[in-house]
Input
Amino acid sequence: MSPFKPIVRALLAPIAIGPPADTEAQSSVSNPVSSCGFRWAIRYVTLGILSVALGGTALKADAPSRAEGSWEKVRCPFDASRALLPVTCGRLKVPENYDAPGRSIEIAFMIVSPRHNIDPAYPVIFLSVAPGAPILVYAEMLVTTPGIHEVVVDRDWVFLDQRGAGRSIPSLRCPRGESHLARVKACRDQLIGQGIDLSQYNSARSASDIETLRKALGVKQWNLWGASYGSRLAFTVARYYPASVRSIVHDGVDLPENQEFVDDFRGTEVALEKLLSKCAVNAACSSRFPQLRSRFLAAILRLREQPVAVGGARFDDNKVLHFIRDSLFGGGSPLTFEHRIQSLLTYMDAAARGDGRLMLQIEHGMVGEDRCEKTSVPVEGYFSLGQHLSIDCNEEKPFESMGEYQQAAAKSEVFRSLLGGQGGIGVFRECALWPAGRAEPIENTHVSYDGPQLVFTGELDASLSGPAGYETEMLYANATNVVFRNAGHVQVHLADCPPSSEDDYRLCALRVGRQFLADPQGSLDTRCAQTRKLRLTP
Output
């Protein structure tokens, strides 16, 4: 049987795309590029005829139409003969602007099929971790390694590069520049010169692409698996197309109503407090680093007024806290994460003692730390700054303000240090250069969705996803939050190398996720999420 079973009626009748009529908002003249005010001129999707194959083989298309909303099978841009599971590579043609169809763009995707598919009508679609982050290049690498068998086990997984990123066309990658703002301006001019409407590359438009793909493939409902920003995109799909969603897995949840900058730094402060509390109640750690919390917070205030300079480096409060935040952010293997925690506690103690040489030594030792060998990737695997800006400047920054930042800074010295001397003005300067349009206010509001949701939260997640995991379980009656003890942000990094041990949380999250997908309303065995011990001192 093919991975997806198209409904025959769908092949014979016109298919409307867009949000239900009762949720459709009108665009205004002052805001012609609304993220939720879709008028949806296209009302028909032409489906490629899907042939039925045996043994869980990948989708096949016979002479597919290239009308808007149709897909075609293409030759995979890697050596598919090395794939350990059946793969189908495809491209979906969609309008750049659903409100005013004209220019078309293409969404690149890949379907990976298990040997035995227990649920063909309900595949998983994976939504990538950050605005501008591709996934296909890494999924293509993963499918050639044994690690793919831990991900794709009993149902199809669909990987796609969202509009503006990766292998999708166009990709809003930006050339390097002398300064960040100069790079933003040059990239803007280059992309606009190519006829690209930068206001059309946001979460609401990507949600429409995902719905169009669902209809084109004949999928009954998606199981959405959103990692970090992918969680926000999953909420956006559920906002406009709730009937198309069977369940959602949030790996590092991102609530649309949260204020990204403020809540992100709040998450860093919460994670830092948790780490310092763990040290305080641990005999070995509290003996080696006595009263570390009070000494380190005092050092932050001191470094703000009197930075430490050593070896050409300058350590002020902003630099120190961002190094800690960045180091806490990732997860990695148990050994890598444990070593990182030990180094951070030593780093904070060094900051408290004013030992700049040790701080510099620790920074140099941790930069580029990776448990995987560095692997070169094609240009389609590079970060897409243009897509990142189109999303951030459309649906995040319009709902934030310098006043809001200043209020948060007045309540928290950690937030003030993370914000830096410019007070966060840089993000508004880059958005002033980028014509991303302004999302409708609904994009920054709570999504009413009553379907089953599973949340993975790292106990030491230093981003907004840490506190948001607990919030999601409180806000949604049908949501379950699984807290991974002594873990960081996102448990299933599909671009990572395969896990090295059975206690790796990547394996645990995948197992719990499979339980959930098999029966979204059933009970879950989550004991594996509590297994990671953390030695705080070397």
Residues 1-65 have pLDDT under 50 and may be disordered. The chain is about 40% helix and 10% strand.
